[in-house]
Amino acid sequence: MSIQQVKLAGVLTSPIISEKSATVADTSNQFVFKVTKSATKLQVKNAVELMFDVKVDSVRVLNVKGKVKRFGRSLGKRSDWKKAYVKLQSGYSIELATA
């Protein structure tokens, strides 16, 4: 395994399993992942193709702002994070339950 493949393996943090991501997966063959803050679209595409052995059609990346929460009398803030919507080419699929 090369150094570049090790770096790509660290790009994907976790899949996001929610009602919205399940709907998007069923209707338009898109899967949602939590990725590192510094990840680019090309890195996300290469990481998904490497890890799941599929062909990626497109990638949409968005920054999610952390919520401001109260802890007793003081205010705190959750950290910001990045989310990626990965659309696969037709004929490919990812089984997140077995991956």
From TrEMBL:
Its BP terms in the Gene Ontology are: translation
Q: Which GO terms describe its cellular component?
A: ribonucleoprotein complex; ribosome
GO molecular function terms here?
Answer: rRNA binding; structural constituent of ribosome
Q: Which InterPro entries does the protein's record reference? A: Nucleotide-bd_a/b_plait_sf (IPR012677), Ribosomal_uL23-like (IPR013025), Ribosomal_uL23/eL15/eS24_sf (IPR012678)
Q: Which UniProt keywords apply?
A: Ribonucleoprotein, Ribosomal protein, RNA-binding, rRNA-binding
Q: How does it assemble?
A: Part of the 50S ribosomal subunit. Contacts protein L29, and trigger factor when it is bound to the ribosome.
Please report which protein family the annotation says this sequence is part of.
Belongs to the universal ribosomal protein uL23 family.
NCBIfam families per the UniProt record, alphabetical: PRK05738.1-3, PRK05738.2-4, PRK05738.3-2
The protein, known as: Large ribosomal subunit protein uL23
